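Proteins fold reproducibly. Take a sample protein:
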Amino acid sequence: GGRSAGGGAGGAQLEQAEEAQVQQQVASGEGTMGKGVLPTDIKEGRPSFVSDRGQSMVAGLAYCVASMTMVLMNKYVLTGFDFHYTNSLLLSQTLLSVVLVVACAGAGLVKLEPLTMPIVKLWAPANIIFVGMIMTGFFSIKHLSVPMVTVLKNFTNIFVVCGDIYFFKRRPSPGVWWCLALIFISGLCSGITDLQFSVEGYAWQFANCVFTASYALYLRRTMDVVKPLTRTGELNQFSMVYFNNLLCTPLILLLMWYFGELPGVLEAPQLRSRSFQVAVGISGCVGFAISLASLWFLQTTTATVYSLVGSLNKIPTSILGILMFNTPTTWQNLASIGLGLAAGIAFTRAKSASSKKDQK
């Protein structure tokens, strides 16, 4: 129907946060990410028959499968049960993410930085932006199809580049400008040919792009400042997931009150459905699996390759979204979506080339 979804609560949080982090890494020209997160024996100890390239391919495949599964699973959770308490669903998956991160830390699989008051104060603006990012993403996916969400997410790149120019005085290359023009044209054509056009859905998605770009830009300014406040001198991905999900809980409770979800959600019939409970649990676990898979992939490749694979992965995700959820479309709309996906891939390559040129 008309309420196709492009992501979900826990999974969307992690994936969008990671996209923002990777945009920061690509812009700064940094190489392999994820260092210092996993214990050395896990990070380096692998069977001798697994080559570096082979491990990178397996890790990349795991990330792609997890990402696609998250999109499709959360589409099912949001639309298959007609559950309208979106902030409540968000809260449940946020708490699940905290539990899973703490469990992994307790098992010695990941290292977490202790949450101190100086870090809380510095991280508060990022956390507010983070909540805005996941909330707007949640509302947009109620009204837009999977392929339209994937195409419109590319507009985040336009806002990031504008922020780079205004805040960091970075001048993009001509190739980047051409890609941004393609992204804008593809978005415009996709909207014109969208058979399920929703003003509300597009408004929420563009708000989501602004929040996601703001998150990336704030991280770019904050990451170096927060490092001296940590025990190890680094703030790894799992610590960021832990901080974001733990600190955003009060804000989500406030949103639940504002949108009138309390105490009505406690009487929702879906909560007594075993299939709904299982679906929510699986979607939350898959969302967390994206964090594990992406971390593994980032440790075996560069931020640029990771970002490029993420762009390429939107193609099969869009196709599956159309096929599995019977999204009505036309060849004009499919062509516009294809142009948008190609523009996103081209932008990643152009941005990487521009960063390498700046470093020389």
The two ends are 51 Å apart (CA to CA). The first helix runs from residue 9 to 28.
